[in-house]
Structure prediction request, 113 residues.
Amino acid sequence: MTANDFRRLALSFPEAVEAEHMDHPDFRVAGKIFATLAYPDKTYGMVKLPVLDQDEFVREWPEVFTPVPGYWGKNGATHVHLKKATKKTLQPALAAAWRNVAPKQLVKSSAKE
Prediction:
C-alpha cells in the first residue's frame, strides 16, 4: 500500500475531502478528521476508529494496525503500517473510521446506495 493508494481509498467515501493538519495530509467528512497520512513518518497512516473496532483490527491484523501511543490511541487512533496494508485490510478500517465521524444522516443515506 502506498500513500497514494491510502489517499484514493480515503477519498472514495461520500463527502470525504483532503486537508492538512500539523503539516501532514488528513481526510475529513463534515469537517471532522477520520484518517491521516505521514504521521509519525511517511511509512504510516492513521485511522480514527471506535475503540471496539480498534481492538478487532489490531487483533486480526497486528502487523498492519497498532494503537497510537498515549491518550489518542486509547480513544481509537490507530496507526496503519502502509507497507503491510492491503486494500482488503485498509478498506474496512477506513469505512469504520469514516462512519465514526460522519453525520448520522450521511451514514444512513450512503448505506442505502
Remarks:
- The chain has a mean pLDDT of 95.
- The first helix runs from residue 3 to 10.
- Helices lie at 3-10, 51-60, 71-74, 87-101, 104-112.
- DSSP finds five helices and six strands in the chain.
